[in-house]
Amino acid sequence: MKSLFTLVLIFLGLLSCAAQKLKTIELKPIVRQGGVYYYDLKRVHGGAYGLQIPLQSLDDDEVNKYYKRFRGWRLVGIGFSVIPAVYIFSLSRNQFLNETQFWTVFGVSIVGGLACEVIAIHHIRKGIDRYNTLVLGVSSQEVGPSLTYKF
Predict the structure, then answer these.
(1) Helix H or strand E segment including 77
(2) Which structural domain, as residue segments, surrounds residue 70?
(3) How many domains does the chain have?
(4) Average pLDDT over the chain, rounded to whole?
């Protein structure tokens, strides 16, 4: 009886195993208005992190490179924000907080974090530009019709 039960389970398992159907979806352009991204005329929640699926579904090495650099610079920027806390916790119990040093460390962490954010935004913009160029066939920086000629 136990072997019959096992055979029935195997048979039902084989019946339920079917190949997954692939569905191809046409990629849409990504539009940026201020700090908000739109994909298929819908707002992308999560900022640029929400664009990971359309950007990586294109499977272009250059777009993937820009997205990875964006994530890396964002991570470095987060690391800068931890520096003041590390400074405070690194003081020994009998050591007092030096205000000048603290404000210097705090300022450096803010400037470093902002610089990393600017670099990260630069990389995601370049990635989106490349993505839109491949999806639409034109650059997202072009506005209106253009005329090209050779001498």
Answers:
(1) helix 61-90
(2) 24-135
(3) 1
(4) 83
